[in-house]
Amino acid sequence: MDKQMNYYKIPRDEWQDFYKAEQVSLSQQELNQIQSVNDKISVQDVREIYMPLVHLLNMTLAGKQDLQSKKADFLGIKAKKWPFVIGITGSVAVGKSTTARLLQLLLTTLYPTKKVQSITTDGFLFPNKELIRRDILERKGFPESYDMEKLILFLNDVKSGLKTEAPVYSHDSYDIVPGAVQLIDQPDILIVEGINVLQLPSNQQLYVSDFFDYSIYVDANADLIEKWYLERFGVLLNTSFQKPGNYYYDYAIGNHDEAFKLARNVWKTVNLKNLNTFILPTRNRADLILEKTDEHRINTVYLRKY
């Protein structure tokens, strides 16, 4: 389906005019601290793209709370405040983690009385030993590599207003950290970021997206994403990958041509295949699409009509 069929296509210069009432004073240095490796975000992006988005999210949250209050009145029960859950998805290396961190920072700054937390669904990957047992280690990131039942139970606890814990994934060891957890303590807003958050696995009565109040897809042309993926790999090869114990350590201290050959193969056989088969088809389920072009610049916003 063409994403324009059920979306308003809004160019950047129009989107930026939708909200100018309040701005957050963030420096470029502060933004550099939250952006992912090889991602780019500017003060101008905050003003022109993310401030209107945060305003839209706040309006949506207020609308949800009003509906919950009216529903409670209808049932004759006391209204309860439920967490507002935002899902953010898109390809590997497209910049969805930066979007998640920036939204958390802006929401926390603008609405200091609200508790805002975030998680990544990487923590719900099966441990490597389980992936090996199932003979799917080479399909890490594909739907079958996630413990979806555990993720759904986690989100159900969050939506029920319970304190709960999320597993922690290490990008150094390329594995789940045994015994490590992230406490999710009854937030007003929870941001859930991951490549799989809008997917519809078969034979399940509930989907991850059933728990979302709003969903965002970070989009870009696949050729651009491949370029960003390889650029990021090069940066990591010269920095984080050179730490002993890192999954890619042997490649970092070895022949870099061979390392890039590996990266290109991983992109083609894993990430691109996963994008085309399982991630991209979820794009038209998002409430909003941020479309990136060169230099990670968001030039177009697609807002769902209905």
Automatic annotation (TrEMBL):
Major subcellular location class: cytoplasm
Pfam families xrefs: PRK
The protein's annotated pathway: Cofactor biosynthesis; coenzyme A biosynthesis; CoA from (R)-pantothenate: step 1/5
Residue intervals of the Phosphoribulokinase/uridine kinase domain: 85-232
PANTHER family: URIDINE KINASE
RNA-binding keyword on record: no
SUPFAM superfamilies listed in its UniProt record: P-loop containing nucleoside triphosphate hydrolases
InterPro entries linked: P-loop_NTPase, PanK, PRK/URK
Compartments where found: Cytoplasm
The protein's name in its UniProt record: Pantothenate kinase
Positions that bind ATP: 90-97
Entry EC no(s): 2.7.1.33
HAMAP family found in the cross-reference section: Pantothen_kinase_1
Organism: Dellaglioa algida
